[in-house]
């Protein structure tokens, strides 16, 4: 009896990657890389390239608006290297299942970045106590410096 692969959101591995209803990454813009994965698989793990790396270049992505690109760069700044976002998957022995997992991860990552609203900073006012402590510290510092002067004769 063959094992039924788990269903991952994001469609088949050769389809376009749907991020939101209005934002779709064309399949041609998805860059796949395969390598040998560690972990379970016995001797077969040494012969199959089951680890999957999915890359999307945000700078060349034609379906992104300038505001979406800016939001993604802010949200994913730590994950972007030369405009490229990378996701890897190597949990299963099957390359196909790892490809599906990588697609689902990339879609979730880009969706969260696009839909994230940047919170506007709400200006705060210094409390009376903090204001008083700051002035007291300044007075104390001034007194210390006055004590370092040569005495008047």
Summed up:
33% of the residues lie in helices and 16% in strands. The protein is an alpha+beta fold.
Structural account:
Helices cover 33% and strands 16% of the residues. It has 153 residues and is of the alpha+beta class. It has a domain at 17-115: Double Stranded RNA Binding Domain (2-Layer Sandwich). β1 and β2 form a beta hairpin. The radius of gyration is 27 Å and the shape is elongated.
By helix and strand content, what is the structural category? alpha+beta
Q: What are the segments in which pLDDT stays under 50 over at least 5 consecutive residues?
A: 1-10
The Cα radius of gyration reads: 27 Å
Residues in helix, %: 25-40%
| CATH T-level fold name of the domain at 17-115 | Double Stranded RNA Binding Domain
Instruction: Output the helix-strand order.
Output: EEEEHEEHH
Terminal CA distance: 104 Å
The percentage of residues in β strands lies in: 15-25%
**What is the number of strand segments?**
6
Largest β-sheet summary = 4 strands, antiparallel
Strand order of the largest sheet: 3-4-6-5
Overall average pLDDT? 83
Return the CATH class of the domain at 17-115: Alpha Beta
CATH architecture of the domain at 17-115: 2-Layer Sandwich
Question: What is the topology?
Answer:
Blueprint: E1 17-18, E2 24-25, E3 30-35, E4 51-57, H1 66-75, E5 80-81, E6 84-89, H2 95-115, H3 128-147
Antiparallel strand pairs: 1-2, 3-4, 4-6, 5-6
Label this structure with key terms:
alpha+beta; 3 helices; four-stranded antiparallel β-sheet
């Amino acid at each position: 009896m063959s094992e039924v692969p788990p269903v991952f959101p994001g469609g088949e591995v050769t389809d376009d990657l749907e991020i939101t209803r209005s934002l779709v990454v064309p399949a041609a813009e998805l860059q796949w890389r395969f390598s040998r994965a560690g972990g379970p698989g016995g001797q077969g793990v040494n012969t199959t390239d089951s680890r999957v790396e999915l890359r999307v270049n945000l700078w060349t992505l034609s379906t992104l608006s300038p505001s979406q690109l800016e939001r993604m760069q802010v949200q994913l700044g730590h994950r972007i290297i030369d405009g490229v976002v990378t996701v890897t998957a190597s949990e299963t022995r099957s390359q196909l299942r790892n490809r599906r997992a990588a697609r689902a991860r990339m879609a979730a990552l880009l969706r969260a970045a696009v839909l994230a609203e940047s919170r506007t900073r709400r200006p705060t006012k210094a409390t009376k106590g903090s204001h008083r402590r700051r002035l007291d510290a300044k007075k104390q510092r001034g007194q210390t410096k006055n004590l370092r002067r040569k005495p008047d004769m």
